[in-house]
Amino acid sequence: TRCNFEIVFTDLVMPPGPDGMEVLKIAKQFHPSSYVVVMTGYSSIETAIESIRRGAFDYLTKPFKLAQIDIIVNRILEYFAMLDDNKRLSAKLAVINERSTTIDSRLERIEFLLCSLVAKVPT
């Protein structure tokens, strides 16, 4: 069985085994909507840019404070909330658009009937 993780924290260097870039690649390959945070004690501008380019949500250098993790997780949770709001508002918009189409067609019918009545009135 395969597990889907919404948030993945990975170290850039993890001997032996896959490194953080490989974990990032696999996470994004199997669960593209996952949020991957790459952590490292061997930071460089190049690895930070590469991590973000490959889809990392954030790049965290060691040593870090627990408050930094809290900030990152809160940003991700806020993003989840925005996505939920977006889905909810999109659904409402679809209903409104459908109703608007119905109202427009009824209005056209009323205008047609009104014009027909006006045409029948003797002058």
Textual characterization of the structure:
The protein has helices at residues 20-30, 45-53, 66-120; strands spanning 7-11, 35-40, 58-61. It has a domain at 1-64: Response regulator (Rossmann fold), CATH 3.40.50. The longest helix has 55 residues, at 66-120. It is built from 3 helices and 3 strands, in the order βαβαβα.
CATH superfamily of the domain at 1-64: Response regulator
Q: How many DSSP E strands?
A: 3
What percent of residues adopt helix (DSSP H or I)?
Answer: 55-70%
Oligomer: single chain
- What name is given to the CATH topology of the domain at 1-64? Rossmann fold
Taken as a percent bin, the fraction of beta residues is 5-15%
The span between the termini is 81 Å
Low-confidence stretches: none
Order of helices and strands: EHEHEH
**Cα gyration radius (Å):** 27 Å
The CATH class assignment of the domain at 1-64 is Alpha Beta
Strand-pairing-aware structural class: alpha/beta
Outline: rod-shaped
Number of helices: 3
Taking all residues together, what is the mean pLDDT? 92
Q: Strand order of the main beta sheet, please?
A: 1-2-3
CATH architecture of the domain at 1-64: 3-Layer(aba) Sandwich
Describe the sheet with the most strands.
3 strands, parallel
